[in-house]
Amino acid sequence: MVYIGGIIVILTFAAIVKGYETRLTLFISGLVMSLLVLKPMAAFDAFFKTAAHSTLVPIICSVMGFAYVAKLTKCDEHLVRMLTDPLKKVQAILIPGAVIVTFVINIALTSAAGVSAAVGAILIPVLIRAGVKPEMAAAAVFAGTFGSVLSPGNPHNVYVADLAKVEVMSIISVHALTSVICGIISAVALSVVAHIRGEVSGWASDSTAQTSGTIQDGSINVLMAIVPLIPLAILILATPQVGLLPKSINVPTAMIIGAFIAWAVTRVKPREISKSFFEGMGYSYANVIGIIIAASVFTAGMGAIGLTDSLIEAMKRSEHVVKLGATFGPFLIAVLGGSGDAATLAFNAAITPRAAEFGLSIPTLGSIANLAGALGRTMSPVAGAAIVCAGIAKVNPIELSKRTWPGMLIAAVVAMLMLL
Questions:
Q1: Domain limits of the chain?
Q2: What string of H, E and C letters represents the secondary structure of 136-149?
Q3: pTM of the prediction?
């Protein structure tokens, strides 16, 4: 049965890479493995338990709720303008600066595709007009779209925190330095690639590049620009290390406070704020929690058929197998499928709870899987963020991957060495 389970797992990820619906694929695979050993309730119990999870659901949904409020009030657009405008004045830092700015904004605006649209609509045309080749201009924004690994609303941070029974900010602190270094590596590597290819300057401006979608002219409202950063600031001030706010303040509380502040600053009708917040929560449940639910069914099936225990035993024989599997398993599947979620969640559900058996901690093992999956997705030509950036620059998404892969691969190796 273990070998049959292995074949099902391979077919599952092949189907995800092919573009089959992720939630349906994971759910059916988990259910089939459970049925093969006559334990169907293992799959259904995992579904029910995760669907009403007291930690994952409120944290992840409230973050997306606040993101929708930031979009409604246009606070996200003012944040983008505040951080991107200075880059226009210094051409020498345009490419690495675009990567870093996107990385930072992605911490507050956690959707990779969303931040690609918000930042890309401004920066990509600016880079092109400055003489940067369109493919490189799009790659500069795309390369920074893994900053969400530092967000308290990142579903993998939340999931690993729940496994380890610690606060989500404690998980972020484990990989914060590594993630920042990976961001710097991404920026520097892309800049080197740009110079080697000769794509830094001298390219004719492409007037067909889209420049609409965010505020392009007019003054920046600093108060509005700060609003998307307020929940993150509240959570940092509430950590035990800082202690300036009560440690009882959690992620949903910070997001709700942020929504109230967004209303106070912009004076948008309260009913519209409320409507957007709950729309965001609903979207998050369907598109993020839904994948987590399906992944839990998948891993329950792996456990029922005996595959998880077999993998654990195989990994115990070699420390290097664990390190390589945790890093390049999610990484490679994310490259092929355009999303690091399925592979990362499957790994963290099946392997990370047993981290102690490999001489590692749950936060460490879960963090490397999270970061590796994000890095792999940031060199995938089928990632949503790549398609958005390529669309703005009017280029083929594969051209972005040709430019981001060196930085992502180097960052993945560095992350493995630093964390494991």
A1: 2-419
A2: HHHHHHHCCCCHHH
A3: 0.83
